[in-house]
Protein backbone atom coordinates (compact mmCIF):
# COMPACT_ATOMS: atom_id res chain seq x y z
CA UNK A 1 0.00 0.00 0.00
CA UNK A 2 1.09 3.58 -0.66
CA UNK A 3 2.35 5.13 2.59
CA UNK A 4 2.20 8.83 1.84
CA UNK A 5 0.72 11.26 -0.64
CA UNK A 6 2.97 14.29 -0.62
CA UNK A 7 5.17 14.34 -3.68
CA UNK A 8 3.29 11.54 -5.43
CA UNK A 9 4.84 11.03 -8.86
CA UNK A 10 2.83 12.38 -11.77
CA UNK A 11 2.34 8.92 -13.27
CA UNK A 12 1.39 7.23 -9.97
CA UNK A 13 -2.01 5.47 -9.96
CA UNK A 14 -4.96 7.23 -8.37
CA UNK A 15 -8.33 5.58 -7.74
CA UNK A 16 -11.40 7.74 -7.16
CA UNK A 17 -14.48 6.03 -5.72
CA UNK A 18 -17.75 7.69 -6.67
CA UNK A 19 -18.39 9.32 -10.06
CA UNK A 20 -20.81 12.00 -8.93
CA UNK A 21 -19.83 15.65 -9.15
CA UNK A 22 -17.24 15.46 -6.33
CA UNK A 23 -15.51 12.37 -7.68
CA UNK A 24 -15.69 13.52 -11.31
CA UNK A 25 -13.79 16.71 -10.55
CA UNK A 26 -11.19 14.83 -8.48
CA UNK A 27 -10.62 12.41 -11.35
CA UNK A 28 -10.49 15.18 -13.94
CA UNK A 29 -7.89 17.31 -12.20
CA UNK A 30 -5.69 14.33 -11.26
CA UNK A 31 -5.88 12.97 -14.82
CA UNK A 32 -4.98 16.36 -16.26
CA UNK A 33 -2.03 16.47 -13.85
CA UNK A 34 -0.73 13.29 -15.48
CA UNK A 35 -1.81 10.61 -13.01
CA UNK A 36 -3.10 7.22 -14.09
CA UNK A 37 -6.67 7.68 -12.84
CA UNK A 38 -9.43 5.11 -12.47
CA UNK A 39 -12.84 6.43 -11.50
CA UNK A 40 -15.07 3.78 -9.89
CA UNK A 41 -18.86 4.06 -9.75
CA UNK A 42 -21.27 1.50 -8.34
CA UNK A 43 -24.14 2.83 -10.48
CA UNK A 44 -24.51 2.51 -14.25
CA UNK A 45 -23.40 5.27 -16.58
CA UNK A 46 -26.92 6.74 -16.36
CA UNK A 47 -26.06 7.80 -12.76
CA UNK A 48 -29.71 7.90 -11.76
CA UNK A 49 -28.90 6.90 -8.18
CA UNK A 50 -26.41 9.72 -7.67
CA UNK A 51 -27.21 12.83 -5.64
CA UNK A 52 -25.98 14.78 -8.67
CA UNK A 53 -28.95 13.46 -10.67
CA UNK A 54 -31.30 15.62 -8.59
CA UNK A 55 -29.08 18.69 -8.20
CA UNK A 56 -29.94 22.19 -9.33
CA UNK A 57 -26.48 22.93 -10.69
CA UNK A 58 -26.36 26.54 -9.52
CA UNK A 59 -22.94 28.18 -9.35
CA UNK A 60 -23.90 30.99 -7.01
CA UNK A 61 -21.26 31.69 -4.34
CA UNK A 62 -22.44 35.24 -3.63
CA UNK A 63 -26.08 34.22 -3.22
CA UNK A 64 -25.07 31.35 -0.93
CA UNK A 65 -23.39 33.81 1.45
CA UNK A 66 -26.82 34.69 2.82
CA UNK A 67 -27.08 31.37 4.71
CA UNK A 68 -23.58 29.83 4.54
CA UNK A 69 -20.19 30.25 6.16
CA UNK A 70 -17.60 32.45 4.40
CA UNK A 71 -15.59 29.36 3.39
CA UNK A 72 -18.42 28.40 1.01
CA UNK A 73 -18.18 31.73 -0.78
CA UNK A 74 -14.38 31.57 -0.86
CA UNK A 75 -14.23 28.08 -2.33
CA UNK A 76 -17.20 28.77 -4.57
CA UNK A 77 -15.53 31.77 -6.16
CA UNK A 78 -12.45 29.69 -6.87
CA UNK A 79 -14.65 27.01 -8.39
CA UNK A 80 -16.10 29.49 -10.87
CA UNK A 81 -12.62 30.04 -12.27
CA UNK A 82 -12.10 26.27 -12.56
CA UNK A 83 -15.42 25.82 -14.35
CA UNK A 84 -14.39 28.54 -16.80
CA UNK A 85 -10.99 26.95 -17.33
CA UNK A 86 -11.98 23.32 -17.71
CA UNK A 87 -15.55 23.62 -19.03
CA UNK A 88 -15.43 26.94 -20.91
CA UNK A 89 -18.92 26.54 -22.37
CA UNK A 90 -20.44 26.81 -18.87
CA UNK A 91 -23.12 29.54 -18.97
CA UNK A 92 -22.29 32.53 -16.77
CA UNK A 93 -25.34 34.70 -17.32
CA UNK A 94 -25.66 35.70 -13.68
CA UNK A 95 -28.61 35.07 -11.40
CA UNK A 96 -31.58 37.08 -10.17
CA UNK A 97 -33.25 37.40 -6.78
CA UNK A 98 -36.83 38.68 -6.64
CA UNK A 99 -39.55 39.04 -4.03
CA UNK A 100 -43.22 39.90 -3.80
CA UNK A 101 -44.35 42.76 -1.53
CA UNK A 102 -45.12 40.49 1.44
CA UNK A 103 -41.50 39.28 1.45
CA UNK A 104 -39.77 42.66 1.12
CA UNK A 105 -38.13 42.38 4.54
CA UNK A 106 -36.56 39.07 3.52
CA UNK A 107 -35.44 40.66 0.25
CA UNK A 108 -33.77 43.54 2.13
CA UNK A 109 -32.06 41.12 4.50
CA UNK A 110 -30.79 39.04 1.56
CA UNK A 111 -29.31 42.17 0.00
CA UNK A 112 -27.53 43.07 3.25
CA UNK A 113 -26.15 39.56 3.80
CA UNK A 114 -24.73 39.14 0.30
CA UNK A 115 -22.34 40.95 -2.03
CA UNK A 116 -21.44 40.82 -5.70
CA UNK A 117 -24.84 42.12 -6.79
CA UNK A 118 -26.43 45.30 -8.00
CA UNK A 119 -30.00 46.38 -7.50
CA UNK A 120 -31.88 46.81 -10.76
CA UNK A 121 -35.27 48.39 -11.45
CA UNK A 122 -38.21 46.92 -13.32
CA UNK A 123 -37.00 48.23 -16.69
CA UNK A 124 -33.54 46.70 -16.29
CA UNK A 125 -35.11 43.44 -15.14
CA UNK A 126 -37.28 43.40 -18.25
CA UNK A 127 -34.20 43.96 -20.41
CA UNK A 128 -32.50 40.96 -18.81
CA UNK A 129 -35.55 38.70 -18.77
CA UNK A 130 -38.36 39.93 -21.05
CA UNK A 131 -40.68 37.21 -19.73
CA UNK A 132 -40.61 38.94 -16.34
CA UNK A 133 -41.74 42.30 -17.71
CA UNK A 134 -44.12 43.91 -15.23
CA UNK A 135 -43.81 41.09 -12.70
CA UNK A 136 -41.50 42.71 -10.11
CA UNK A 137 -40.59 46.28 -9.19
CA UNK A 138 -36.91 45.50 -8.75
CA UNK A 139 -34.43 42.65 -8.33
CA UNK A 140 -30.91 41.81 -7.23
CA UNK A 141 -28.68 40.88 -10.14
CA UNK A 142 -25.55 38.79 -9.47
CA UNK A 143 -23.75 39.16 -12.84
CA UNK A 144 -20.84 36.78 -12.22
CA UNK A 145 -22.80 33.69 -11.19
CA UNK A 146 -23.61 30.76 -13.47
CA UNK A 147 -25.41 27.45 -13.70
CA UNK A 148 -25.05 24.05 -15.31
CA UNK A 149 -27.49 21.28 -16.16
CA UNK A 150 -26.27 18.38 -13.98
CA UNK A 151 -27.54 15.55 -16.16
CA UNK A 152 -25.68 16.99 -19.13
CA UNK A 153 -22.51 18.29 -17.54
CA UNK A 154 -21.72 15.15 -15.54
CA UNK A 155 -21.40 12.95 -18.67
CA UNK A 156 -19.37 15.77 -20.21
CA UNK A 157 -16.96 15.69 -17.27
CA UNK A 158 -16.73 11.90 -17.61
CA UNK A 159 -15.83 12.32 -21.29
CA UNK A 160 -13.14 14.84 -20.41
CA UNK A 161 -11.68 12.44 -17.86
CA UNK A 162 -11.33 9.83 -20.60
CA UNK A 163 -9.85 12.43 -22.96
CA UNK A 164 -7.23 13.18 -20.30
CA UNK A 165 -6.27 9.49 -20.15
CA UNK A 166 -8.44 8.40 -17.24
CA UNK A 167 -10.54 5.23 -17.03
CA UNK A 168 -14.10 4.98 -15.70
CA UNK A 169 -15.39 1.68 -14.30
CA UNK A 170 -19.16 1.66 -13.85
CA UNK A 171 -20.71 -1.08 -11.74
CA UNK A 172 -17.55 -1.02 -9.61
CA UNK A 173 -17.48 -0.40 -5.86
CA UNK A 174 -14.08 -1.36 -4.46
CA UNK A 175 -13.06 -1.03 -0.84
CA UNK A 176 -10.50 1.75 -0.56
CA UNK A 177 -8.41 -0.48 1.73
CA UNK A 178 -7.95 -2.98 -1.09
CA UNK A 179 -6.63 -0.42 -3.59
CA UNK A 180 -2.95 -0.10 -4.41
CA UNK A 181 -1.87 3.50 -4.61
CA UNK A 182 -3.81 6.58 -3.61
CA UNK A 183 -7.56 6.18 -3.06
CA UNK A 184 -9.90 9.19 -2.99
CA UNK A 185 -13.28 8.36 -1.47
CA UNK A 186 -16.17 10.47 -2.83
CA UNK A 187 -19.07 8.12 -2.01
CA UNK A 188 -21.35 10.65 -0.34
CA UNK A 189 -23.78 9.04 2.11
CA UNK A 190 -22.40 5.60 1.32
CA UNK A 191 -19.25 6.62 3.23
CA UNK A 192 -20.83 6.40 6.65
CA UNK A 193 -18.36 3.63 7.43
CA UNK A 194 -15.73 6.41 7.35
CA UNK A 195 -17.92 9.32 8.55
CA UNK A 196 -20.58 8.08 11.00
CA UNK A 197 -21.74 11.68 11.58
CA UNK A 198 -22.90 12.11 7.97
CA UNK A 199 -26.60 12.72 7.48
CA UNK A 200 -28.80 13.02 4.42
CA UNK A 201 -30.68 16.27 3.78
CA UNK A 202 -33.51 15.81 1.31
CA UNK A 203 -33.82 18.22 -1.59
CA UNK A 204 -37.01 17.94 -3.64
CA UNK A 205 -37.40 19.30 -7.16
CA UNK A 206 -39.91 19.47 -9.98
CA UNK A 207 -39.14 19.74 -13.69
CA UNK A 208 -41.76 21.43 -15.83
CA UNK A 209 -42.03 22.26 -19.53
CA UNK A 210 -43.54 25.28 -21.27
CA UNK A 211 -42.74 27.34 -24.34
CA UNK A 212 -44.62 30.38 -23.03
CA UNK A 213 -41.71 31.61 -20.92
CA UNK A 214 -38.01 32.02 -21.61
CA UNK A 215 -35.34 32.59 -18.96
CA UNK A 216 -31.60 32.99 -19.48
CA UNK A 217 -30.53 32.61 -15.86
CA UNK A 218 -31.74 31.22 -12.52
CA UNK A 219 -34.38 33.23 -10.69
CA UNK A 220 -34.44 32.92 -6.91
CA UNK A 221 -37.69 33.82 -5.14
CA UNK A 222 -37.73 34.81 -1.49
CA UNK A 223 -39.37 32.16 0.69
CA UNK A 224 -39.72 32.08 4.50
CA UNK A 225 -38.44 28.52 4.90
CA UNK A 226 -35.88 27.68 2.19
CA UNK A 227 -34.32 28.99 -1.03
CA UNK A 228 -36.67 28.51 -3.97
CA UNK A 229 -35.40 28.98 -7.48
CA UNK A 230 -36.31 28.39 -11.08
CA UNK A 231 -33.47 27.26 -13.32
CA UNK A 232 -33.79 27.23 -17.11
CA UNK A 233 -32.87 24.02 -18.90
CA UNK A 234 -32.89 22.92 -22.51
CA UNK A 235 -36.00 22.27 -24.60
CA UNK A 236 -38.25 24.74 -22.79
CA UNK A 237 -37.83 22.99 -19.47
CA UNK A 238 -37.33 24.52 -16.04
CA UNK A 239 -36.20 23.00 -12.76
CA UNK A 240 -38.02 24.25 -9.68
CA UNK A 241 -36.15 23.61 -6.46
CA UNK A 242 -35.39 23.01 -3.83
CA UNK A 243 -36.56 22.09 -0.40
CA UNK A 244 -34.16 21.35 2.42
CA UNK A 245 -35.71 18.75 4.71
CA UNK A 246 -34.05 16.81 7.52
CA UNK A 247 -35.37 13.45 6.39
CA UNK A 248 -33.72 10.54 4.62
CA UNK A 249 -36.37 9.33 2.22
CA UNK A 250 -36.74 9.88 -1.50
CA UNK A 251 -40.42 10.82 -1.59
CA UNK A 252 -41.85 14.25 -2.37
CA UNK A 253 -44.57 15.48 -0.02
CA UNK A 254 -47.77 17.12 -1.19
CA UNK A 255 -46.86 20.21 0.81
CA UNK A 256 -43.47 20.52 -0.88
CA UNK A 257 -44.94 19.99 -4.34
CA UNK A 258 -47.54 22.68 -3.70
CA UNK A 259 -44.93 25.14 -2.46
CA UNK A 260 -42.57 24.50 -5.36
CA UNK A 261 -45.32 24.84 -7.96
CA UNK A 262 -46.77 27.88 -6.20
CA UNK A 263 -43.35 29.50 -6.31
CA UNK A 264 -43.19 29.05 -10.07
CA UNK A 265 -46.72 30.41 -10.46
CA UNK A 266 -45.78 33.40 -8.29
CA UNK A 267 -42.88 34.22 -10.60
CA UNK A 268 -45.13 34.04 -13.68
CA UNK A 269 -48.75 32.83 -14.05
CA UNK A 270 -47.91 31.15 -17.37
CA UNK A 271 -46.11 28.47 -15.35
CA UNK A 272 -49.60 27.40 -14.25
CA UNK A 273 -50.16 25.96 -17.72
CA UNK A 274 -46.79 24.17 -17.86
CA UNK A 275 -46.56 20.40 -18.11
CA UNK A 276 -45.02 18.52 -15.17
CA UNK A 277 -42.26 16.32 -16.55
CA UNK A 278 -40.70 14.89 -13.41
CA UNK A 279 -40.88 15.07 -9.62
CA UNK A 280 -38.11 13.67 -7.44
CA UNK A 281 -35.72 14.12 -4.57
CA UNK A 282 -32.08 13.53 -3.73
CA UNK A 283 -30.25 13.16 -0.44
CA UNK A 284 -27.37 15.56 0.04
CA UNK A 285 -24.54 14.33 2.26
CA UNK A 286 -23.94 16.77 5.12
CA UNK A 287 -21.94 16.93 8.32
CA UNK A 288 -23.43 18.51 11.46
CA UNK A 289 -21.92 21.90 10.57
CA UNK A 290 -22.99 21.66 6.90
CA UNK A 291 -19.39 22.29 5.80
CA UNK A 292 -17.28 20.16 3.44
CA UNK A 293 -14.43 18.03 4.69
CA UNK A 294 -11.29 16.55 3.16
CA UNK A 295 -10.01 13.87 5.53
CA UNK A 296 -6.46 12.61 5.00
CA UNK A 297 -5.29 9.24 6.33
CA UNK A 298 -2.02 8.16 4.70
CA UNK A 299 -2.99 6.66 1.34
CA UNK A 300 -6.70 7.30 1.80
CA UNK A 301 -8.30 10.71 1.22
CA UNK A 302 -12.04 11.17 1.74
CA UNK A 303 -13.96 14.13 0.31
CA UNK A 304 -17.49 14.54 1.60
CA UNK A 305 -20.15 16.76 3.14
CA UNK A 306 -20.76 19.03 0.16
CA UNK A 307 -24.38 19.46 1.36
CA UNK A 308 -26.36 21.50 -1.19
CA UNK A 309 -23.21 23.03 -2.71
CA UNK A 310 -21.94 20.05 -4.70
CA UNK A 311 -21.59 21.65 -8.12
CA UNK A 312 -20.35 24.87 -6.56
CA UNK A 313 -17.63 23.36 -4.37
CA UNK A 314 -16.45 20.23 -6.20
CA UNK A 315 -13.84 21.92 -8.46
CA UNK A 316 -12.19 23.84 -5.62
CA UNK A 317 -12.11 20.78 -3.35
CA UNK A 318 -10.48 18.75 -6.12
CA UNK A 319 -7.85 21.45 -6.56
CA UNK A 320 -7.15 21.39 -2.82
CA UNK A 321 -6.74 17.61 -2.84
CA UNK A 322 -4.35 17.79 -5.79
CA UNK A 323 -2.41 20.58 -4.09
CA UNK A 324 -1.94 18.45 -0.99
CA UNK A 325 -0.86 15.38 -2.96
CA UNK A 326 1.53 17.30 -5.19
CA UNK A 327 2.97 19.85 -2.78
CA UNK A 328 1.75 19.08 0.73
CA UNK A 329 -0.47 22.17 0.83
CA UNK A 330 -3.10 22.26 3.58
CA UNK A 331 -6.28 24.31 3.74
CA UNK A 332 -7.06 24.36 7.45
CA UNK A 333 -10.72 25.25 7.00
CA UNK A 334 -11.62 22.03 5.21
CA UNK A 335 -8.73 19.57 5.53
CA UNK A 336 -8.14 17.21 8.45
CA UNK A 337 -5.38 14.67 9.04
CA UNK A 338 -6.78 11.60 10.78
Please explain how this structure is put together:
The structure is a single chain. The strands form three sheets. The protein has an eight-stranded mixed sheet. The chain has a seven-stranded mixed sheet with strand order 8-2-1-9-16-15-17, covered by helices on one side. Helix 1 (21-32) runs parallel beside helix 8 (310-327). By secondary structure, it is an alpha/beta fold. The two termini are 17 Å apart. The radius of gyration is 20 Å and the shape is globular. The chain has helices at residues 21-32, 61-64, 70-86, 104-113, 122-128, 150-163, 254-267, 310-327; strands spanning 13-17, 36-41, 58-59, 95-98, 118-121, 138-142, 146-147, 167-170, 182-185, 199-209, 219-221, 228-233, 237-241, 275-286, 293-297, 300-304, 335-337.
CATH superfamily of the largest domain: FAD/NAD(P)-binding domain
Question: What helical percentage do the residues reach?
Answer: 25-40%
Mean pLDDT figure: 93
Strand content: 25-35%
Q: List unreliable stretches of 5+ residues.
A: none
User: CATH architecture of the largest domain, please?
Assistant: 3-Layer(bba) Sandwich
Number of DSSP helical runs: 8
Whole-number tally of structural domains: 2
The CATH topology name of the largest domain reads FAD/NAD(P)-binding domain
Categorize the overall geometry.
globular
Give me the side-by-side strand order of the main sheet.
Answer: 5-6-4-11-12-13-10-14
How big is the Rg?
20 Å
The profile of the biggest β sheet is: 8 strands, mixed
Tell me the total number of β-strands. 17
- CATH class designation of the largest domain: Alpha Beta
**SSE order in H/E notation?**
EHEEHHEHEHEEHEEEEEEHEEEHE
In whole angstroms, the N-to-C terminal distance is 17 Å
Structural class: alpha/beta
Amino acid sequence: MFQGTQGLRGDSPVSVIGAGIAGAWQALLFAKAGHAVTLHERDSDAMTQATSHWAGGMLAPWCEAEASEPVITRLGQRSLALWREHVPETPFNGSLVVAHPRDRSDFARFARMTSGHRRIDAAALSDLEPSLDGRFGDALFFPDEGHVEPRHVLPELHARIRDAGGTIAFGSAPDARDIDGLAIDCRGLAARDVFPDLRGVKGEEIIIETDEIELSRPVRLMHPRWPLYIIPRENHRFMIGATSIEREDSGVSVRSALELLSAAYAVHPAFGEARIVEIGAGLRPAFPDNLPRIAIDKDHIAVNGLYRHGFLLAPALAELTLGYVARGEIDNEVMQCR
